[in-house]
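[job 4417] fold queue: 2 targets
>>> target A
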Amino acid sequence: MAPSPQRLHRSNTSDERERVSLLLKVARMYYEEGATQAQIAKHVGYSRPTVSRLLTEAREEGVVHIRITHPLERAMSIEKALAEKFGLIGARIAESKVLGNLTQNVARCAADYLIETSPEDSVITVSNGFAVNATIEAMPRMNWLASRVIQAIGSVSNEEVQVDASETCRRLAGQLGGRHIALPAPLVVSAPEVAYSLIQSQQVAGILHYAATADTALVGIGTIEDRKKGYIFDGYVEEETSAILQRDGAVGHICGHHFNAQGEHIVTPLCARTIGINLKQIRRLPRVVGVAWGEHKLDAIRGALRGKLVSVLITDRATAEALLED
């Protein structure tokens, strides 16, 4: 007597459940527990070729989905998105939540980028600041004898020596193995006449021209809200300049010059007393590598990107994702 359709259905369903259960067991042992096919065969009581066939079935029937991925792949997709959104020629993203110091992680990304993308006879102009200093500390020792590093802005006497432009210039050249060209002038002088006289002098004018025609600039992106140590305008911003910066919505500064949320230069009386390359010259450089990160820097970074003041951004994942949310 033939089995009823109901009994046949129950039998087929039971057989299918057992088969799927076997596929799951074999797949978990192989992909999650790391067991070999021989070990699985011994455990389930089948031959190794049968186990191999079961693993193939598991993939074909969707029991197992294989996806090749890595944290770096996600970082690279963010870098691409940043470049497309802001018209950058490059970006590097450091992981925000990894073992180690975030400053060191971002700085290592910046150092790696410079070494990987620069020729040995590079001409690099460099500003000051903690991000630039950290990048130099992360630099490997090179033997780029033909390289040149030029100081982009004057020195700040009240700044920590290690992060001053004269020192970052000297130390970067030391790491690259090339020659450094210092700018023998302060960042800010007492009066516009003094600045004009210095800028017109043959030595200073020649160095500033060299800096303005460099292959690459390495700069930090400062925020006017961050008045912690190393703030380069302490003692220089008089009441009139402060009022203009507030009125015109200053969000950050690069190489001693302030800009608003759109990256537009804010002209103040301070500009006429500042010695270094200006924002117009910075925009003309083939490549400006800006190194900055952190929530407190978001407005400044965003403004620099919108204003095309940097063409390469080195930052961390959290900052990059916040920039992409706009």
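>>> target B
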Amino acid sequence: MKSVPLLSFALLSAAFALGPFSPALAASPLASADLGSVKPQIDCTALMRTSLDGVATTAVTIVSASVTDTMVGQFCKVTGTIAPTINFEVHLPLSKWTQRYLQSGCGGLCGSTSVSFDQASSCAPALNGEFVVAATDMGTATKRGEPIGSFATDPQKRIDFAYRSNHETALVAKALIRTFYGQGPRYSYFTGCSDGGREAMIEAQRFPDDFDGVSAGAPAMNFQVQNSFYHAWVIAANRRPDGTPILLADKLELLHSAVIAHCDKLDGITDGLLSDPRACKVETKWIACAKGTRDSKKCLTPAESQVVRRIYDGPRDAMGKSYLVGGPLPGSELQWDFIPASANARAMSAMLGEAMRRYVIFPQSPAHDALVNNFKFDDKTFAAVSELHSLNDAMDPDLSSFSQHGGKLILWHGWSDTSISPMTSIAYYKAVQQQMGAEQTDLFLRLFMLPGTGHCGGGDGFAQIDTLTPLMAWAEKGHAPRQLVAGKIPDRDKAPRGGLPGGDMSGKRVPLSAAAQKESATRPVYPFPIIPRPIRAGDTTGTSGFAAGHSTAKEPNVVDWHGSSLFAPGFQRNYSVRDGALFILQNR
């Protein structure tokens, strides 16, 4: 039997006790605690007069408190501000609160409050409006016409964005809950993807007592390097000296088809997806233009082939050591949104990356030069990028305080994510195992990798999942998730990207998450590194047709890259502002 590095004995025995492919990892019970509903003890408008002195580290102002109607009942909607500029919303159900609190993370650089939740499309309490829910704009709202990321010219807003806003919002929301219902929540949850995933990890690492369950999707935990070296490289790797792109988007279907043709069968399932892309070694010669080819529409020119290799390989030093923990993986080519459609088009990732480098990544904001043409992929730049590692990053593998609190963490990532490399989540998971031990890690953390899924959803794979229901069963009843059930949306353009639409509760829409879309197929997703294998040839449309198997990928336990030491315990620091600049405090 092939060994799987760093997989705990408990999971290993469950997966392979009956042989190389085993149905032993059947779905765990998804029942959460049976909690009765609690009614408010005061009127909604009375919350306007609630004293919140001392709840947060700065003054809290309640701006409004009023009853709003939704499709699932009435809520008391409270808006307010935590000084200086952190805006928040808290929505408290009037008739069916089941003693749970749910807070949502915010994607990108935030700047607005959105009480909607990703990956909860089949979670009945979420769809029924049984949670008190809250969100914050993280204090990064900008005025119309102000550049993206320009909030970071204010050092206090940098701190609020990095780690303070969600923690303070949780404290305020729980205080409002105690006042409104006469008791606090029995269970508290946080869910987010992308930067929302980073925020989820920040909560587990910096504030381990805030939440009982955390769902972190595609977390931007390696914030500094990801938003500098990674996003600069995928643009720079595709540029001629005059700045025009070499590879255009019309070649991506060709490239993707070649990758699938050569690697699809490696997981035992011929379905156009790669269950573990690390097992696929791409060769551009598969579709390279023959010498003397005049029409290159159906092949890659030598220059285009070089671009593809550079994108997969990432930036490296003279000795071949990578500056990235990982880049886009094989099978993700249709998600390469950093490749422009035309020579005159500009990829969105290029604009966002430039804003990050200009305002957010470096200590000086705005930085002198943020243009990708002048970005140096060298040790000096890597050191400069790492200066704010202790402020923004969420890579601390010591989750002992979170575990001792009883916290449970579901970490998930799409294999076809090209905004944040899936290898980031894998590297973090392995770092936690090394720090805390594999068996101890299994008691509170699971990592799930979704085949064919892009950034926070979308793609041509199985992108529709519900992480909140199994998280509740784990936190409340001790039922660790042995698998997730992922659904495939027939039209991939309609698959959830960046979270399902839930949105503003001020209207009549579903307040937390849209109901699951119709699925053409479902598939079990097992805890990493276990992958699904078909039990019978051709029976691959439902979860019952699969069993737990192992991947053929041969990867080292720890990727040796320039930032390997960044996955270390105790690096995070608390900051304050002195003389208009960031100042590191002695203790966290």
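[job 4417] complete. Note on B: Residues 1-7, 12-24, 493-511 have pLDDT under 50 and may be disordered.
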